[in-house]
Amino acid sequence: MIALLLLSCLLGLPASTPLDSIPADFPAITVLVNDSPAPGELFMGPLLRGTPRYSYLAILDAQFAPVLHVRRVGSVSDFGLQPNGLLTYFDVNAHAYYALNSSGVLIDSFRCGNGYTTDGHDIRLMQNGHALLMAYDQRTIDMRTVVPGGDSAAFVIGAIVQEIDAQKNVVFEWKSWDHFAITDATHLDFTAHLIDYSHINAFEIDHDGNILISSRHMDEITKISRTTGEIIWRLGGKHNQFTFLNDTAHFSYQHDIRRIPNGNITLLDNGNFHTPPNSRAVEYHLDEQQMTAELVWQYSHVPAIQSFATGNVQRLPNGNTLISWGTDNTITEVRPDGSTALELVLSPLFTTYRTLRYPWIASGTQSPPPLPVTASLLPPFPNPFNSSTTVMVELDRRLPVSLVLYSLLGQRVATVMEGWQDAGRVSYRVARGDLASGVYFLRLTAGTRMATARLVLLR
Fold first, then answer.
1. Which residue has the higher pLDDT, 436 or 153?
2. Is it the case that residue 370 has pLDDT exceeding 50?
3. Three-state helix/strand/coil letters over the chain
């Protein structure tokens, strides 16, 4: 602990954050609408656009005052709350993600392995102690062999996705070079000296344990196997495999792919190449058998906002959607019917990569003793089943949840779900057409509680 506190001091992180005053250089926030937004605090990492460069890690209460604020010299981004309760952020100068406890004390760090430099677009901490990270990988390529008029020594940037275990060993690595072509980019000049052809900016662990990847410069969401790394499907871009329903625009230069509890996906469509350019939050229902992508909800700001870069979309437990419009500096929370519950504008002197809402109790505050956790795994139906069955998880509070399928011999077969679940009942589909007939066990881990269901697969 002494070593961690010393490291916190060296990094400029206080062992405890003063809460009695707002710093004079804390970014101003203008409240335009405050009409009963969802409960919870706002997490953001405001970064001063000019020099000298400094940043804040900030958690704002219902009155938009910081209940936690950590000032950092230099650039930080991607500040948020992980399912295990840790706060994480990316330090641009250190090329590393750091994890803090609820007092703002540094307790861990995360970097890519195999010699790659960690990038700060996204991180996922998993219940098994693993972390998902990414890196950009620049290579010198003779683009004359790719396109006419190409640069003979172009700097071409690919992407690396890694999973590291609790001991920081690389246990999975995926390279864009092995699966994408440079010319998969949709709006780049392939004769330029610098070509960032994929520009991965987000990833998500899907309900089946595989990985969703957002490639901004390809206008594409890609699902890859977490076992083999092979592409399972491609949504959007030049190699789109889905039929879009109710959406002729598709998405352009998107950010923040997320699989939400109802099984749909959300993202921020930055819309750089829409006509005219226009950003929007979108929700798609994906039928991965029929290969359709149905636009089931969208929100475009009035007046229109065109966020050139960054931003995020977060579906909240009460059904509202929090949208950070990236470079536009506007943050909007809307209800399912599109009405505005909250709208903030961050000082134009600052920018923030993402803004998120979570319930938060800071270390050291008084709170009632926690009630025992209630978590139930309801009987699967149908059971026995032929190719798929549905299970329902019921919780009495929001908890980190994992649903893992095991063989009769105790071998881990598949991850059905890993992430946060809100209070109430949520259904999950177990579809394992690749398995042989037999008896399997589905194990639920929800916070400190565990439950198991017996499944019988008949072919």
1. 153
2. no
3. CHHHHHHHHHHCCCCCCCCCCCCCCCCCEEEEEECCCCCCEEEECCEECCCCCEEEEEEECCCCCEEEEEEEECCEEEEEECCCCCEEEEECCCCEEEEECCCCCEEEEECCCCCCCECCCCCEECCCCCEEEEEEEEEEECHHHCCCCCCCCEEEEEEEEEEECCCCCEEEEEEHHHCCCHHHCCCCCCCCCEEECCCEEEEEECCCCCEEEEEHHHCEEEEECCCCCCEEEEECCCCCCCEEECCCCCCCCCEEEEECCCCCEEEEECCCCCCCCCCEEEEEEEECCCCEEEEEEEECCCCCCCCCCCCEEEECCCCCEEEECHHHCEEEEECCCCCEEEEEEECCCEECCCEEEECCCCCCCCCCCCCCCCEEEEEEECCCECCEEEEEEEECCCEEEEEEEEECCCCEEEEEEEEEECCEEEEEEEECCCCCCEEEEEEEEECCEEEEEEEEECC
